[in-house]
Design goal:
The complex is a heterodimer of chains A (280) and B (413).
Chain A lengths: L1 H5 L9 H8 L7 H24 L11 H13 L4 H31 L1 H15 L6 H9 L3 H25 L3 H9 L4 H38 L5 H10 L3 H29 L7
Helix pairs in contact in A: 4-12, 5-6, 5-8, 5-10, 5-11, 6-8, 7-8, 8-10, 9-10, 10-11, 10-12, 11-12
Chain B lengths: L5 E11 L5 E11 L3 E5 L6 H9 L6 E7 L6 E3 L7 E4 L11 H13 L4 H12 L15 H14 L4 E5 L7 H18 L2 E6 L2 H7 L2 E5 L6 E6 L11 H16 L15 E3 L2 E3 L6 E3 L6 E7 L2 E7 L11 E9 L2 E8 H4 L2 H22 L3 H11 L4 H9 L20
Parallel strand pairs in B: 3-8, 3-9, 6-7, 7-8
Antiparallel strand pairs in B: 1-2, 1-4, 4-5, 9-10, 11-12, 13-14, 14-15, 16-17
Classes of the chains: A mainly alpha (280), B alpha/beta (413).
């Protein structure tokens, strides 16, 4: 990694060289520097939080201290039984996201490939896409009750219509020359939609799936806050009713870390799912 | 040629784009079994469009294209793209999600369905194009030249009746291009495929072609057909080759193909906006819009141009899209236009304006005596007196070609 630093243009020992090594556009920094900067940003937030709480600028009732919240997270996982909530939430997110993906991918591919499908689906999709998902929560309760189905429906509504458009966009970016080549190799035009356009767009679609997973977590909490008997959102709203601010914050943090874990999983899966997309 | 059977026939093929641009006009020609036919023509004349029409990716506005299939005696009219007309594009079109072997296998499976022989055939094709050892590499991991080898192997794997090649080596550096030209000839010897090859490079055309068709400007039609015996390899520096090259160049030159204008007078010097240019052997020049340096050399009466992109130390050959060439007493003058600039409307406009200006200038200059020309040139080029003397004083200009603004005089050669 240090070789990256050495090739800096005009890279002397002067005061400007480290500055250039870190602040030059489109230039990779050393792994150590990367981790350090990332840790510093976390450290800054924790520091600010500590000053506010330990310095007694804010009452613990409004904002408990980092130590207090950390203890709460620990207790939640060890003695307070947060696991059923985590499992319920994860289950809803994964199922909602999966349903949305499994339907949005084919529809997006069709929309990008057939002008008629685009005419049928895109204007309608665009209208629905701009409707606030939160407004659908009462409706979903009315239709589906307060069980898992309703939570999954909210996640689906929140992600599906966006994902369709993103998939269609990814597919339409596949170079035409690939499709034409396939045709001169004897691939029919309908067949090329699945054999060429879909794999061609797959790395980008996979990336969109990752982004959508993040949204799914947000919509999950929205759904769980309103009517539920399990899930992290439910835990948060319960804690709020009991004025347990530390549990509220702990809940938010747990959702954040779960999201991060999923994101990491997607990143690790990328070379497995799109092995051809390696940089080296 | 007569003993060979007919493979493909174009009958008054016309093509217009929806916008009304007339690209191909009544093209009629035959392609024989196992022949390498090369189509050359000015940039933007419709060579690629012609190939795409033959491939079935575009439908001709009028006329028809017929192909003989292996198992049929008579010709069948083509409809749409098919495996029987495989195409190698200038762009790299390897499927990025498949390995080298995967790309070739994709085509072989198409041609042969299932069966045991597939893997054997895939390996055979990979070996044939010299990619042994790279079977498991993905396209993103290999060079441009290798990608084109994959494309060729893949197209052959589909077992086409006719191989269509659209400037397949156009994006490669000169060395790789030369190597691939030889490999293509080798493959042709092995497979005996019928090949229709499109290029703007006369040298490439004459090196590969058994028949070279020169197209006119849009709307394109065949202006000249040159036949060669199918003997390879050809000596690029043989007298015949160079003579033929000059002849082709003259034909293309006189088509006024450059930007749709008539042929220019033999030029004396060129003037581009604020940039004054003298073009001649060993002269370096900069184009007005780019800072690239273009070095022109003439070798054995053959013209070469190297472009050194701004800020780069390495000359890059192979970016020359067209050249305006004039030979006067052994000195060749050339105006080169970089390929990547021909798509630039603003640049073309500038060149058009410049040519308009140049024509006036040329008319004025041709009325002057040599002494007056030198005086005028010195005024314009105070710093390059010696070059000027070398180039101008010792040079007699050939007599004027007259004002030939029509571009479709096939007898012009």
């Amino acid at each position: 990694m240090s070789s990256h630093l050495r090739v800096s243009p005009g890279g002397g020992q002067g005061a400007g060289s480290w500055y250039r090594a870190v602040l030059e556009p489109h230039r990779r920094i050393a792994t150590g520097a990367y981790v350090g900067l990332a840790a510093a940003s976390f450290g800054f937030v924790v520091l600010l939080w500590s000053v506010l709480t330990y310095g007694r600028f804010v009452q613990p009732f409004f904002l408990p201290s980092p130590g207090n919240v950390a203890t709460t997270v620990w207790e939640l996982f060890t003695t307070q039984g947060v696991w059923p909530h985590v499992v319920a939430s994860t289950y809803r997110v994964v199922v909602g996201w999966f349903l949305s993906a499994i339907l949005a991918i084919p529809l997006g591919v069709l929309m990008a490939s057939y002008h008629s499908v685009e005419a049928l689906a895109e204007p309608l999709n665009d209208v629905i896409r701009y409707m606030p998902v939160v407004a659908f929560v009462p409706l979903t309760i009315l239709w589906l009750g307060v069980g898992d189905e309703q939570k999954i429906a909210v996640i689906f509504l929140g992600t599906f219509f966006q994902l369709v458009l993103m998939v269609a966009d990814a597919v339409s970016k596949v170079p035409r020359s690939l499709l034409e080549t396939a045709q001169t190799l004897g691939v029919g035009s309908h067949e090329s939609v699945w054999k060429i356009a879909l794999p061609g767009a797959w790395p980008m679609i996979f990336d969109h799936l990752r982004v959508t997973m993040g949204w799914a977590w947000s919509y999950l909490v929205v759904a769980e806050l309103v009517a539920s008997s399990r899930g992290i959102g439910f835990m948060i709203i319960q804690a709020q009713r009991l004025l347990q601010t530390r549990v509220v914050i702990a809940g938010i943090l747990i959702v954040g870390f779960l999201g991060l874990a999923f994101d990491l999983m997607f990143k690790l899966l990328t070379p497995v799912v799109c092995p051809w997309n390696r940089r080296h | 040629m007569e003993q060979k059977t007919l493979k493909l026939a174009l009958e008054s093929v016309d093509f217009r784009f929806a916008g009304g641009i007339h690209v191909l006009r009544g093209l009629t020609f035959d392609v024989r079994e196992g022949e390498i036919i090369v189509i050359v023509g000015p940039s933007g004349c419709g060579k690629t469009t012609l190939l795409r029409v033959i491939a079935g990716l575009l439908q001709p506005t009028a006329g028809s294209i017929w192909i003989s299939q292996e198992r049929h005696d008579d010709l069948g009219e083509i409809r749409g793209p098919s495996r029987e007309r495989g195409m190698v594009f200038q762009q790299y079109t390897s499927f990025p999600w498949l390995t080298v072997a995967g790309n070739v296998r994709f085509a072989v499976r198409r041609a042969r369905g299932g069966g045991e022989k597939i893997e054997q055939r895939v390996q055979e094709l990979i070996d044939m194009v010299g990619l042994t050892g790279f079977e498991h590499a993905y396209p993103a991991q290999i060079s441009g030249g290798m990608q084109q080898r994959v494309a060729i192997a893949r197209t052959l794997g589909a077992e086409p009746e006719v191989l269509l090649m659209d400037e397949p080596f156009g994006a490669l550096d000169a060395e790789t291009r030369g190597a691939l030209q030889n490999e293509l000839l080798h493959l042709w010897r092995l497979t005996g495929k019928t090949i229709i090859f499109v290029t703007h490079d006369i040298d490439e055309a004459l090196y590969l072609g058994q028949r070279v068709l020169i197209l006119t400007n849009r709307p394109a039609r065949v202006v000249e057909e040159i036949t060669f015996p199918a003997r390879y390899p050809r000596d690029r520096y043989s007298k015949e080759f160079l003579e033929m090259k000059r002849r082709c160049r003259r034909i293309i030159e006189r088509l006024g193909i450059t930007i749709g204008l008539g042929p220019l007078e033999p030029f004396y010097f060129l003037y581009l906006g604020k940039e004054r240019l003298i073009l001649g052997d060993g002269v370096k020049l900069r184009f007005g819009l780019s800072d690239d340096e273009i070095l022109i050399r003439s070798r054995f009466g053959d013209i070469e141009a190297c472009i050194r992109p701004a800020g780069s130390g390495r000359p890059l050959p192979g970016f020359v899209e067209w050249a305006l060439l004039l030979t006067c007493e052994g000195i060749t003058y050339a105006l080169y236009l970089r390929e990547d600039l021909t798509g630039d409307t603003m640049f073309l406009q500038t060149v058009n304006e410049f040519l308009g200006e140049y024509r006036e200038l040329a008319a004025a200059v041709s009325a002057l005596s040599i002494e007056d020309r030198v005086r005028l040139a010195r005024q314009r080029f105070p710093h390059s007196d010696r070059d000027l003397r070398d180039m101008i004083v010792s040079t007699e200009f050939p007599s004027s070609h007259g004002d030939r603004t029509t571009t479709e005089d096939p007898a012009a050669c």
